[in-house]
Each structure stands twice: as structure tokens, then as C-alpha cells.
Amino acid sequence: MSDITPERGARNLLMNCARATAGDRLLIAYEPPEFGYFDADSVAIVSGVARSMGLSVDTVDVGFNPGNPHLSPDLLARFETADIILFLARLGDQLRFSDMPQGKKIIVSFALSRELFGSGFSNGHHDAFLELKAGINAVLHTAQDVHFTCPLGTDVRGRPEMNLKPDGDTSILRFPMSVFTPVPAHSFSGRVALSFLTGTGSKYYDEYTIEFDCPVFAHMNNGRLTGFEGNPTDTARAEAHYDRVAKRFGIDRNFVHSWHAGIHPGCGYPWDMRDNYERWGGAAFGNPRILHFHTCGAYAPGEISWNVFDPTIVIDGITYWDNGVFHADRLPGGASILKRYPCAAGLFVSPDTDIGLRSAS
Fold this sequence. Notes:
The protein is α+β, with helices and mostly antiparallel strands. It contains eleven helices and 17 strands.
């Protein structure tokens, strides 16, 4: 894709996701860079492009409150004066399944930095990925059999029972659009190979991430975690982690809520995931090399995620993901979508395969 710039990524957000027009009032709710998640440049990049489009721009520092994310009365009052609310802050993601003010366009950005705004992740036309999401949703909605595996030994099978009503997904707009609607896990069984357990970004807690010395298999039966298999030390740590998180939040320990895979081949993560698992979990999941489960808690997104690398996903005999490569052209109408959006098609030809995996130190 030619002419990839951070400004072009911001324009894609404002024009094609927010559908902003001259005269709209944009409020950017941002998280300062000292929290180590969003960078210092993104607010200025989006603000500059917005003003060039004739929008009025206001910004508000919403900080980061890991223990009690909420919309204060002052912040809600600020929301009332805006047409479009853009979260360059984890607060939007923390509250994405909660009630938000009605009648507003509310966008959560998974582009966290100048690098990500200036990558194929933000520059690929937003409508292309909305259409691809709709396409895979439709395939899953009528599917009789879904089977996915991975090189480490994941082997899960089931028949999707999709909820494509508005309450089946978050109603907040997401930019970039990088996953399909989560598939309820209650009709899936098998084993999931895991190298680590980490949180979902819903809540934050001590020992947010635990790594295993060897892959551990999580066994699941009709959406219930039934146990772990592997190195005894690792499996004991996994069981203790689930005990601790479930007890802390008073939630259904063994509930496996849903799963999805990435659909955006421009979604790279150019940093070491181990440096900041929280940031990695909030940005990298849209890459087709990652299949992501929501577990521990009978709600989305749960509190512990399972992450499967380089999945192969076969739906009714058609391989749509092959070892971490999403073949969007195999969707009904997929080739037509890519033809209409050559910028997106180029990302499928030359995907960003960097998802933050580095050799252990």
C-alpha cells in the first residue's frame, strides 16, 4: 500500500469509521503516555487531521484507573457536548460492554501509537474490514462444523450458535476493525495449547500474566474448563491462577465465554510482548496469527484470555485460516471485497507477521 502515514490512518478513522463531517464536535478522551500504553503523539495526529476536516476538537485527560473504571459526572457532561467521542484510552475498552451515552458516536482505538496509526493496520480502508467481518459472521452463522488446530497441538471442534443481534457484540465502534463477532464457546469442546495466561483488559490485578515453561493444554467441554494437562508445576500454577482470579472477582471460574480470530493482516505488534502484556493484549489480537478466547467469568470478555498462535480454522470443510494466514478471498464475496479495496488487498498479499513474539531471554 502506498502513502502509508499516521495522518492517513487518522483520516481513515475519522472519515470511514466515525463518518465525521465538517462542523462535527470531536471529543478525544485520552490516557497520558506515562501509563505506558498510549503514546504521546496520537492525540496531536488525530486532532490535526480533524481540524483540517473542519471538525471542532476538544480533549480531556481521563487517566487510567485499573481498579474502578467509570464515567464521572464531569466526563459525562463533557460527552453531552460532543457528537463523536474517541477513546485514546483504556477506559473506552474497559467500559466497552457497559452502558455508554446514547446518541453519540463512540469509538475505541486499538491503534495505540504513531507507529500503529502509520501502519497498514490503520491505513487499510475501514469499510473493507467491516465487510470482511460481516462475511465471516455470515459463514459462521450457518456453519455446521468448525474445527481449529495449531502447531502446538490445539484441537477444538464445535458448531457455532452465533448471536448477531446488537447485544452479541459491543455496540461501540472499534478502530481498526480487526475481529469478527465472538463465537459463543458453549458448543465447543477440545484442548487449547497455551504458553501463558494473561488478562483480558477488563480488570487489572497482580500477577496479570503467568508464563509456562512448556505448553499447557486447557481442556474444555461444551464451554467449561475441565482441567489442565502438562508439566505438573505449570498445571498447578494454572489451576492456582484461576482459583485466585475467580475468588478475587467472585466469578464463574470455569466458564469459557467465547472466541474469535484476527482478520486484519496489517495488525502488527512491533514490540516484545513480554515488555507489556497488557499493551500486547489490547493491540495484537486482530492479527490473523492469533486466536483468542475469553475465559473465567460468565460475561464478555471474562478475566483470563487464552491465546493460540498460527491457528488453522476449517469451517464446513473450507480452510479460511491456514497456519495463521487468513484467506479472505475464500469467503463468499471475499474476492470482490478485496477488488474494491486494493489497499486492503495489498495487506493480504504482504501481511505483517510480527505479533511481538521474541525468544525467551
